[in-house]
Write a structure and sequence with these properties.
The chain is of the alpha+beta class. It has a single domain, classed as ACT domain (Alpha-Beta Plaits, 2-Layer Sandwich), CATH 3.30.70. The protein contains 3 helices and 4 strands, in the order H-E-H-E-E-H-E. The chain has helices spanning 3-7, 28-40, 70-82, and strands at 14-23, 48-52, 58-67, 86-89. It has a 4-stranded antiparallel beta sheet with strand order 2-3-1-4, with helices on one face. A hairpin with a 5-residue loop joins strand 2 and strand 3 (58-67). Helix 2 runs antiparallel to helix 3. The longest helix has 13 residues, at 28-40.
Length: 90
């Protein structure tokens, strides 16, 4: 599949869930949400879902945003991937 074909798989704007995983520490949740909000604006509380791992060491946060473009999504994923507290962003 060519890059130009991949860009057309989503129709923007659209609701898009971003799953972020990291160690459940004091600042992880706030950091993860702030990194996304830098590119989306304020995210409503009901658009944020969290789930702790069975032993409580890790936290998964799913943030559903209204994605405006593939470039916006790429920028968000890059910001998340570049941060030390973020282990995985899907």
């Amino acid at each position: 599949m060519k890059d130009s074909d991949q860009e057309t798989l989503l129709v923007f704007p659209c609701d898009f869930p971003i799953k972020i995983m990291g160690r459940d520490g004091e600042t992880f949740r706030q950091t993860a949400i702030a990194l996304v909000e830098e590119h989306t604006g304020k995210i409503a509380d009901d658009a944020i879902k969290t789930s702790a791992s069975s032993k409580g060491n890790f936290l998964s946060i799913t943030v559903t945003i209204t994605a405006k473009s593939q470039e916006q999504l790429d920028t968000i994923y890059q910001a998340l991937s570049d941060h030390d507290e973020i282990l995985v962003a899907l």
